[in-house]
Design brief:
- The protein is an all-alpha fold.
- Helices cover 78% and strands 0% of the residues.
- The protein contains 22 helices and no strands.
- The protein has helices spanning 3-19, 24-39, 42-57, 64-76, 80-92, 98-114, 117-134, 139-150, 160-169, 173-201, 214-220, 222-240, 245-262, 268-302, 304-314, 319-336, 339-356, 361-373, 383-391, 397-406, 408-420, 423-426.
- Helix 10 packs across helix 18 (361-373).
- The chain starts with a helix and ends with a helix.
């Protein structure tokens, strides 16, 4: 049996194990390990796998994951979302659809210090859904704005997904963070414009609130300035070259603890809950990385990624159409399984394809991050949709997925724009 056939059987076996509810990290390890046993000697398989896992998990750069997760967990419990929401509403509350717009803006602000789509959706939704219900907002628009706004958590830096992409593709975390800012802002703006269009077509979907005075608007900034300073210190210092990625994450943790302490919100209970969730989340990500190392080494030995790249380059199609097909695979994959897991499985296969087609690796990393983030709101998985449902059991899945459908158009527009004009991602580097 040829190595290519072994690799294809391994990929099919991986998806079969995932369908059977085997955790993705264990499924990748099992397929990679037994695949290596089949095509090499047992001793060679043990050595390749053990050295690969040790080399990856002992990497200093990997420590950035628990540090950024811990910073997000601290701010998640500090009451920051209420202040972000109040400030955004004070400035935009008098406009049609202002509560939905506020939800998007608050999600973007929280994403800038959190890095998780689920945490962003859960935190902002806890405040936004009752408020929009009180003001008589259409259920679909309310649910869709919370679910879609939450996806900004994995696009706007710092982002755990971008960190994992950087580690998988051996890219600089700093470069991915810088490159993701403008696409994230473009997507946020398209979300806001979508809400404006919906309200223009049907004003009853989102009644306008009262106009806040300038005194209220300025007072609302008091609770936001500190977060802006922390965000500027962490990412500004990273981009300016003052810190490495790991040092920037450590500065963020210290800054978050200091900020929460000055507000009088710091407690042992908060620290314990933040540390516990950080350990769980970090362990999950690190297990995914370990499984990906084993599966990736198996694919490398079989040369399947390089064969796929050569096949794609030989297709009688323009490179942009081939890349569009690759991105479509990411859309489908992100909709059928966990986005993080699908990224880790697919990057070893499709990253060489992007390089053979002549695309910049940083651009490709940002694109797959954006495309797979659609999976967080796309049925049948749509984890953010399930989070919205848990926050308000009165919402039906029909309302939630109808609302999510409103925000698919801005996603597609953003992806098409970045596909046709890659310099939007790259000009800041």
């Amino acid at each position: 049996m040829s190595f290519t056939m072994v690799a294809m059987i391994g990929v099919l076996a991986l998806f079969l194990l995932i369908i059977l509810k085997v955790p993705i990290s264990f499924a990748m390890f099992i397929v990679g390990f037994f695949g290596m046993l089949h095509i090499t000697s047992p001793m060679a398989a043990y050595n390749i796998i053990s050295s690969g896992i040790w080399e990856q998990l002992s990497s200093y750069s990997l420590s950035v994951i628990p540090l950024f997760v811990f910073m997000g967990e601290l701010l998640f419990r500090s009451g920051i979302t209420e202040k972000l929401f109040a400030a955004a509403y004070a400035w935009t509350g008098h406009r049609q659809g202002s509560m939905a717009t506020t939800t998007i803006l608050s999600s973007a602000g929280f994403a800038a210090v959190c890095g998780s789509n689920t945490a962003t959706a859960a935190t902002v939704g806890t405040i936004a859904l009752p408020e929009m219900k009180k003001f008589g907002y259409h259920k679909a628009l309310s649910a869709g704005s919370v679910a879609a706004g939450g996806t900004l958590g994995v696009i706007i830096p710092p982002s755990a997904v971008l960190i994992v992409i950087a580690l998988q593709a051996e890219l600089a975390i700093r470069d991915l963070f810088i490159a993701s800012i403008l696409p994230g802002l473009i997507l946020m703006t398209l979300f806001v414009l979508t809400i404006a269009c919906l309200c223009w077509r049907n004003p009853a979907m989102a009644p306008a609130g009262e106009r806040s005075s300038w005194g209220v608007r300025l007072a609302s900034l008091k609770g936001v300035v500190e977060i802006f300073v922390l965000f500027t210190l962490v990412l500004g210092g990273l981009f300016a070259g003052w810190f490495t990625s790991t040092e920037a994450a450590a500065v963020g943790c210290v800054g978050a603890i200091t900020l929460i302490g000055l507000r009088g919100r710091l407690s042992w209970e908060m620290l314990w809950e933040s540390l516990s969730n950080t350990l769980r989340t970090s362990a999950m990500i690190l297990m995914l990385v370990a499984g990906a190392v084993v599966f990736g080494r198996f694919l490398t030995v079989t040369r399947l990624p390089f064969l796929v790249g050569e096949w794609a380059a030989a297709l009688p199609l323009p490179a942009v159409l081939v890349m569009a097909c690759v991105l479509l695979i990411y859309v489908v994959g992100g909709a059928l399984m966990d986005a993080m897991g699908f990224l880790i499985i697919s990057i070893p296969i499709f990253f060489p394809v992007a390089l053979v087609l002549g695309y910049d690796p940083i651009w490709f990393g940002i694109m797959v991050c954006i495309v797979t983030s659609m999976g967080a709101i796309t049925p049948p998985v749509g984890v953010n949709a399930f989070i919205v449902k848990s926050l308000d059991p009165e919402l039906s899945f029909g309302d939630i997925f109808l609302g999510v459908g409103y925000f698919m158009t801005p996603y597609l527009l953003c992806i098409a724009l970045l596909l046709l004009v890659p310099d939007i991602v790259l000009f800041v580097l």
